């Protein structure tokens, strides 16, 4: 009994250390993004606070959490208040699925757990827009929900293809089967579809319709300020980091305990920012056309192809 309690305590401490590292990573990803966008747009990035702007994320955090919190009188206040907290909680909870070898939670149904967290994230955006009792927020949340649900289908079918190929729901299998060749080389179209779908899932350019500033003021978070806005902001960047890490696990096959794994993840985070600095926003009907008429047929065909390959291997083994 005491050993079980000790193991549980170690896992909890390890997870808390992971969360702290993720939050520090989120802070410096914001700095990285502003620096890269400064170079892309040929202007100055943050370079005043500390050496080369290294303390800028912390000064932003102090500013955001010390500002006055606005309280919309007509909002459904309890739900309005807790939605950013729930959003950040989900984006941090999903980090537990990564296949670490150092005592963190690593279970056999991690892919299903990832999809559960991804599906629940839709509700925090939708309810935040509704509870604000603002037309701009509601419109932004509805657009975000339609976009997220559309691209989740492609993500699910791509992972289902690999579930069929690997024969399990654990992310640890991806490390095991990519020792000699990465899945990115075996299925390059799927990796590109996955990356584009990750951009849509995290509401990033060119799919940032939930925060279309030119027509929606600021999207579903129009009525949020101070700490609430900061929590939504942190949840978004935590999701970007996680999607970068998950792309490396699924397609670039590295062990999370190696340095190369983190270099690849940072390169993917850089590509997220690179896309934001170079591509314009799509038209909304083009976004939906891309999801249902382009990505979905390719994902389904690959799923059938992998089922055929697995069946052929099973027959040959017999």
TrEMBL record:
Reactions catalysed, semicolon-separated, are: a ubiquinone + NADH + 5 H(+)(in) = a ubiquinol + NAD(+) + 4 H(+)(out)
GO CC annotation terms, alphabetical: mitochondrial inner membrane
Q: Which domain of life is it from?
A: Eukaryota
Q: What is its EC number?
A: 7.1.1.2
| Any GO BP | aerobic respiration
How would you describe this protein's topology in the membrane? Multi-pass membrane protein
Q: Where are the transmembrane segments?
A: 12-32, 77-98, 110-132, 153-174, 180-200, 229-253, 259-275, 287-309
Primary localisation category: mitochondrion
Q: Name one Pfam family in it.
A: NADHdh
Signal peptide limits: none
**Keyword terms, alphabetized:** Membrane, Mitochondrion, NAD, Transmembrane, Transmembrane helix, Transport, Ubiquinone
Spell out the subcellular localization from the entry. Mitochondrion inner membrane; Mitochondrion membrane
Query: Per its UniProt record, what PROSITE patterns does this chain match?
Result: COMPLEX1_ND1_1, COMPLEX1_ND1_2
Entries under InterPro entries matching the protein: NADH_UbQ_OxRdtase_su1/FPO, NADH_UbQ_OxRdtase_su1_CS
- What GO MF terms are annotated? NADH dehydrogenase (ubiquinone) activity; NADH dehydrogenase activity
Provide the family line: Belongs to the complex I subunit 1 family.
Function according to Swiss-Prot or TrEMBL: Core subunit of the mitochondrial membrane respiratory chain NADH dehydrogenase (Complex I) that is believed to belong to the minimal assembly required for catalysis. Complex I functions in the transfer of electrons from NADH to the respiratory chain. The immediate electron acceptor for the enzyme is believed to be ubiquinone.
What name goes with this protein? NADH-ubiquinone oxidoreductase chain 1
- What is the gene called? ND1
């Amino acid at each position: 009994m005491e050993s079980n309690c000790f193991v549980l305590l170690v896992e909890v401490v390890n997870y808390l250390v992971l969360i702290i590292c993720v939050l520090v990573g989120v802070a410096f990803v914001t700095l990285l993004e502003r620096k890269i966008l400064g170079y892309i747009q040929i202007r100055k990035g943050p370079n005043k606070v500390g050496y080369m702007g290294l303390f800028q994320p912390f000064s932003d955090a102090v500013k955001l959490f010390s500002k006055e919190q606005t309280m919309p009188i007509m909002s459904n206040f309890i739900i309005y208040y807790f939605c950013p907290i729930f959003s950040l909680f989900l984006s941090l909870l999903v980090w537990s699925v990564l296949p670490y070898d150092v005592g963190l939670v690593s279970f056999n149904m991690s892919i299903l757990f990832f999809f559960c967290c991804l599906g629940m994230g839709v509700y925090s955006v939708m309810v935040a827009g509704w509870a604000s009792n603002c037309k701009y927020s509601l419109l932004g949340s509805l657009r975000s929900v339609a976009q997220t649900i559309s691209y989740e289908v492609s993500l699910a079918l791509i992972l289902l293809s690999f579930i069929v190929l690997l024969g399990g729901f654990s992310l640890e299998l991806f490390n095991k089967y990519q020792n000699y060749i990465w899945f990115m080389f075996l299925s390059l179209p799927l990796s590109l579809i996955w990356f584009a779908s990750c951009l849509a899932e995290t509401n990033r350019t060119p799919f940032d319709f939930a925060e279309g500033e030119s027509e929606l003021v600021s999207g579903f978070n129009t009525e949020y300020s101070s700490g609430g806005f900061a929590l939504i902001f942190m949840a978004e960047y935590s999701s970007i980091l996680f999607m970068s890490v998950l792309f490396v696990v699924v397609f670039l096959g590295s062990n999370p305990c190696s340095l190369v794994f983190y270099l690849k993840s940072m390169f993917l985070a850089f590509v997220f920012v690179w896309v934001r600095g170079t591509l314009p926003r799509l038209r909304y009907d083009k976004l939906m056309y891309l999801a249902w008429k382009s990505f979905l047929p390719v994902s389904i065909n690959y799923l059938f192809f992998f089922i055929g390959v697995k069946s052929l291997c099973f027959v040959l083994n017999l």
